[in-house]
Amino acid sequence: VEAGDAARLRDLAEPLHAADIADLLEQISPADRRDLLGLYSPEIDGDILSELDESIREEVIEALPREVIAEAVRELETDDVVDILEDLEEPQQELILGALEDADRVAVERALSYPEYSAGRLMQREVVVAPHHWTVGEAIDFLRQSENLPDQFYHVILIDPRMKPQGYVTLGRLLSSRRDVALRDITEDSFRTVQATEEEAEVAYIFNQYHLISCPVVDENDRLVGVITIDDAMNVLDEEHEEDMLRLAGVGDESSIADGLVATVRSRFPWLFVNLIAANLAALVISHFEATIASLVALAALMPIVASMGGNAGTQSLTVAVRALATRDLTGSNAWRVIRREAGVGLINGLAFACIMGAVGSFWFGMPMLGAVLGAALICNLFVAALAGTIVPLLLDRLGLDPALSSGTFVTTTTDVVGFFAFLGLATVVLT
Amino acid sequence: VEAGDAARLRDLAEPLHAADIADLLEQISPADRRDLLGLYSPEIDGDILSELDESIREEVIEALPREVIAEAVRELETDDVVDILEDLEEPQQELILGALEDADRVAVERALSYPEYSAGRLMQREVVVAPHHWTVGEAIDFLRQSENLPDQFYHVILIDPRMKPQGYVTLGRLLSSRRDVALRDITEDSFRTVQATEEEAEVAYIFNQYHLISCPVVDENDRLVGVITIDDAMNVLDEEHEEDMLRLAGVGDESSIADGLVATVRSRFPWLFVNLIAANLAALVISHFEATIASLVALAALMPIVASMGGNAGTQSLTVAVRALATRDLTGSNAWRVIRREAGVGLINGLAFACIMGAVGSFWFGMPMLGAVLGAALICNLFVAALAGTIVPLLLDRLGLDPALSSGTFVTTTTDVVGFFAFLGLATVVLT
To answer: Whole-number mean pLDDT of chain B?
Structure first.
């Protein structure tokens, strides 16, 4: 396909959705991508640009001729242009802003004036409104005469004379009501508004919790400035999840499968470095007990079991807590009960594994006391793991930090240190 | 509040959304929940039931009088009733089915005949259709005369005489077009259908990838049987994420923060048990080198560093791969390039940490050769970790299994075994 046959390529790409073409561009190698863009550039439109992953969008925009980009962004709605702009460098931003029509440029610049990751960045400014004293008939006539309705809209927002939203009416309800019904009598119960400065994660939560389809955005004076639709909220939800998952694993949360070698190394090295310090801390604990290990080398073989079980149990508690914090299922009112339950789970699992490994340790090395020490250390470490895995994310959240961020290293360091200390310390007291 | 004052409780709960009342019920203790339900039961409606987490829904249904439940489910749309029913035991299912009107019961039973987690379970049967030869005027008149339109709908689906969907028209477009325009001239490009037997994860992917708002569902003869709306798809996406996260952490994927002590122990024990076996494998490797450790106890302090760095690096690669597989960003066409990149990242990070720990190891114990062995083991283990973290989920996916399931234990077992073997094996050869 890369034989330079532009016409053939166009035919092949014709039936594809913009999102699929963007995926294709992300999955091929950088060299292939350059070749493909060279051939295909006249066909690249705004939809493809806005579907591209941020990590390669800059590269693609650089590879495209100015006219193609200008043409592409002019077709897009303002929220999509904002989405493209916010990740670009200054000169590329200027280039795109310059290509927009005046009215759109003003709208985009105003959206960019809201903080990053806020509702103001997410919303579209194109809204469909009606005075709240109108009837169904008046609204329908108004809509049928409007020239410039947005591509997608699901509600007519009712506003008072000062642009404050009062409720909304679904188009379905509008169509099925008699012409003389007052709009304010058929508004939806689900109506709520968000502030333009609200964080987008909060917006996604509201959509998911209250099953919203669209939500009006208001400024600090409660005046309507835009509307957020569910497809944007779904996108944010998806990104928030990705962030949580990647942060829990200690990977930079902007990293993507399309990143190059250097970007990938850069996003992973810092976390591994933090882990290295933590691991050295554990090593320091062990080296304190060198005399004990020298007198009973079997301890060296068994000690990773204590650490590994603690690390795993801690990760279990941690993941459940981080997820529950994200979905607001873990709050001040049940935190204490969840901590107590986790502590109970840690103790019960600790007892169970203490019995199993106590027996294994006794038979393996023929020393019942070694088995007992191993079992006691497991109980202790699984209990601490359960507590740390729950309390660390709760504390981070209380401090206003992301509970997923770096709590993994925190928890495993705790379980490593406690595990080695408990096991080797007990062994020192009991066995030597 | 729990002083038995039912009227006061009703006033307090009045302004709350059903989802918030459900959250409240989830967060209080089982004893409080029983008391609350006793007082509040006449007010429990279908919306609250369908917002409840599965883990406590059964408990709540048992605590409620039959008439309340019958009343509650009768108000719900069929897809919500299906959602409640599929997690209940047989006798409770019968109870609810018996409370439904005949037509609804048939609809619910038909939905339950589709496989679990399929589009057929997710869809609502209430659809708004129009013959594809109609004009805008005919469609509007038809809608205005319909008595029984669904609560929420966004599209009118065009069908041919054999009930095959041909396209759809948004209500906004319908309202803003002239009455004599043919419906088939204003259909949306985004139109696509899904099979009723399609998996719900696939449906959520399609909604997210193509920014759909609603999607018609067809049977094996391509005839329209229902429609899925974006709020249901958003829910599925949310659940899929939760599943991936919990599975990666080795927690049963149905577990919830509201689970009791026993349920929690039961959902975590099996994974810890698998990890125990893995940890014993690592211990077995170490015990093979007892003679080496006995002659140089410093090895015992340093060996967890190698294992821990490998485990962390493996988890990084694994999480990125699992996430990319879930979003279809990692496919057959770029798998090979991603594997090569991960291998490169593993080597580079390995080299970097080898230099750091080589120096630390040399100075700490005053033995340059010990530092060299530590460094070499780190390079080896980070390389293997990167490969295992990428190849294991790819293999699981190729085999049709969930790449998140149990791959974490797989990868850390590999890095533990390789790490201990490389470090202690090299030490045996070089240092003794």
So the answer is: 87
